[in-house]
Structure prediction request, 503 residues.
Amino acid sequence: MSSFGSDKVVLVAILSVNWTTLLVERVLVAPLPGRRVLSVFPEQLYSLDIQRLAHAPLNARILVATALVVLFATALSALAPAACIGRRHLSDWLDTNCGKRSLESRLRRWSLAAQVTLSTLLLVGAGLFVRSFDQAVKVDLGIGTEDILVVSADLRQSGYTSTQSTSILKEMLNRARAVPGVLGASLSTSPPIGFLGVRYVGYDIPGYGDPYGVGQPAGGRGPFREAVSPGYFDLLGIRILQGRGFADSDDSRAEPVVIANDTLVRDVFRDGDPLGRCVRFYGEDSCRRIIGVVSSTRRELVRVPNVDGDRYEPAFYVPVEQRPDAAHVLIRGGGEATALISALRAALHTAAPSAPYIRIEPLSLYRDQQTHAWRVGSRLFMTFALAALLLAAVGTYALLAFLVKQRTVEIGIRVAIGASPRDIVSMALAAGMYPVLIGVGIGVLGAAALTRMLRSVVFGISPTDALTFAGVLLVVVIGLAACAIPARNAALIEPASLLRSDR
Prediction:
């Protein structure tokens, strides 16, 4: 490419930046901007203000650096032709064809092999992210996320105490239930997905040990405690396995009670009956009686420290009337719950007019936030892999077409002495597929070597997933397709036409 041509490409690229930022936003911006999740991926994927940066003016230093890189790459790619033209004697250049029979031919083949290697690496990376994303979205969190809205009100920062906040949220709860289309509502300390506002607690159960080692130097995190109102379990589809759920009578004047999930029951009580047992939380003087056991849930898809990522977390639930820790309202709508957001915001704002804002988000976005990094990785890797595959296909076609053109006389002689079209096609395919297969082999070995680095970012599969690596056959198929037309043209060469030509 000439420097003038590269200048035009840079100019077109600069002009297209503004057009592509919307696509970048849709790919990179998290479902819940500003909400961080515990993840093995860089925090920037969740905290970067993509929407603000996308509309920022173009940075002159970045533009200059980009232009310099493009111009340098163009100059570097022009060195080989310049070296040929700059030979001392034209006759030497004509005699040797600038090393066409050796150096130039090898450079073309190895350049194509390098393109195929890059395509293979990117395709394996895309496959791992796509497969991880597919596994992540299939994980059962133990709750229903459809048609659930999460209401967050910034009450604590507005100066309200925990008791005042809970009282306002109870008023919001009543107003939400009166909105047409709302099927149910409940209070909770935190959203049921993610670690926003989650409280992990130490506890003591007389007669039983602590399997989580809470309080020990190398101990675990222990169970989380959630303050909820009656109807919470029905709202989220959490099953009551033993005993009962909370009732309106479980208020501050009633006996302190608690509900445990079945993961905690299995860990602590083994084969014993948990109902009626005493649980004393650190910081509380009174003992709470276990009145029920519910099915377990998962808050996170990724593996977290001191928690087995393949299992549900232990949990306690207490009535919000006995522990005013509520900070969110969960609402179930009929049909499309997002259609209720405007009506709910108007109704809820009257309960807390001094709150800076009331945030209403679908619970499904909290789950999407968990899979965001795999979604981004799969889309980016797939985009780069397809672009690299396209370049490799074009390179394969161009290389084989050039070789066929270069060896036209040789092919004509082979046909004249009896070579069949099948022999010519086989020879052409071998010439074109040789660098493709070399590149695929190097790419597979390189991908296998890099799997140790990817072990922490794949989910639900092995970094050496057989199905993913089988996807490199696509590179071979595309290489064969790119060789098809030049190979067919080679088979159609007629010796008689060569004799009549000026060659």
